[in-house]
Amino acid sequence: MALRQIRVQGDDVLTKVCRPVKEMTERNLELIEDMIETMYEANGVGLAAPQVGVLKRIAVIDVGDGPVVLVNPEILETAGEQTGQEGCLSLPGKAGNVTRPNYVKVKAYDEEMNEYIVEGEELFARALIHEIEHLDGHMYTEKVEGEIFDVVYDDEDDEDE
Ligand code: ZN
Question: What domains lie within the chain, and their CATH numbers?
C-alpha cells in the first residue's frame, strides 16, 4: 500500500467524467487500498479516484463505521433534505454550506465486483452523493450556498483539544 498524492481544485483531472470499471484487476485493488490509506492519512471521510488522478468510477467512504468501497456507484433514490457544512480533500482547509438529500440509496459493486445496495442518511448520504459527483467531474463548490470559508481542523495530537 502507498499514499497517493491528492489533487487539488484547479487540476483538470477533477473536471473529467470517469470511466466505469469493467473488471477487478490487481491494479484496481491496489488503487482501492491506496485510496483508503490516503483518505485516513488526510483525515477525510471520503475519496474518489479522480482525486488521486485516476479516471475510474471508484470511491471510498468511512464516516466512522469502517471503509465502504464503491465501484461504479449509481444513485437509485434520494429523499428529504439537509443543509450543512461540507468540505473536500481537494480543497483543504475550506468548507461551505450545501443542501443535499437526507437519504440516498445507491447501487454499487464491491472490490470483488459483487453488486450491492447501500443506503445512507445524514453525513453518510452527503458523503455518498459528494463522492459520486466527483466521478462525473463535479465539486461541492458548485453547490455552495453563500461563501466558502476557512475551517480549522482539530489536530488529534493537540492536547488542548
Ligand atoms: Zn471531495
Answer: 12-150 (3.90.45.10)
